[in-house]
Write a structure and sequence with these properties.
The protein contains 3 helices and 10 strands. It is an alpha+beta fold. The protein has one domain: Inorganic Pyrophosphatase (Alpha-Beta Complex). Strands 1-4-5-9-6 form a 5-stranded mixed β-barrel. Strands 8-7-10 form a 3-stranded antiparallel β-sheet, covered by helices on one side. Strands 2-3 form a two-stranded antiparallel sheet.
């Protein structure tokens, strides 16, 4: 019996599953790595990676970053963040902790959700999940955001507070205190519900 496969490349947002064991374990589609001086994003129409802009500051992403397929930050995600006017209408973002540096983007990672960081971008909820690579032995005992070494969290929060900063302009983002696994998992479920409300319970396998 042959393994099932796609006859063509599925759209990374709409054509992939959000994870093998939602909301505990998710799939992360990686857009940028700690080696990228350019901010890359998936083009929503084609599914290809496009160069969005050079990184605004001298700091680089501290860990691989991407999104959870078939999620959408709409009204349900926005309702979970005080003062948010709604969700940012993008897929749910995720940072993935790994021991070994990952230098390639456009890859899939299976990750275990341990918490997140609330971020308002222009008044809209732009949550950043924090997860660990499921197969990483170094991080296997990390189950909660409090288990993550503080230095990693400081680097991540510093990056989020500065990556959109431009000389002479006020940054549009507000970064709050990290939250734990339970709240992060509630956001995953809300983002999946928002996706179903926006795009329907099933999505096309191609672009």
């Amino acid at each position: 019996m042959r393994d099932e496969h796609f006859p063509w490349r599925p759209h990374p947002w709409h054509g992939l599953q959000p994870g093998p064991d939602i909301p505990q374990r998710i799939t992360a589609f990686i857009e940028i790595t700690p080696f990228d001086g350019v901010k890359y994003e998936v083009d929503k129409q084609t599914g290809y990676l496009r160069a969005d802009r050079p990184q605004a500051s001298s700091s680089l992403p501290p860990m691989p970053y991407g999104f959870v397929p078939r999620t959408y930050c709409g009204s349900r995600v926005g309702a979970l963040m005080p003062c948010a006017e709604g969700g940012d209408r993008d897929p749910l973002d995720v940072w993935v902790l790994t021991e070994r540096p990952i230098s390639r983007s456009e890859i899939l990672l299976e990750a275990r959700v341990v918490g997140g960081i609330p971020m308002l971008d222009g008044g809209l909820a732009d949550d950043k999940l924090v997860a660990v690579l499921s197969s990483d032995e170094l991080w296997m005992d990390v189950r909660e955001i409090g288990d993550v070494p503080p230095v990693f969290m400081r680097r991540l929060i510093h990056y989020l507070r500065t990556y959109k900063a431009l000389p002479g302009r006020e940054t549009p983002v507000e970064v709050g205190e990290p939250y734990g696994r339970e709240h992060a998992q509630a956001i995953v479920l809300a983002a999946i519900e928002d996706y179903h409300a926006a795009f329907g319970p099933s999505a096309p396998q191609g672009a």
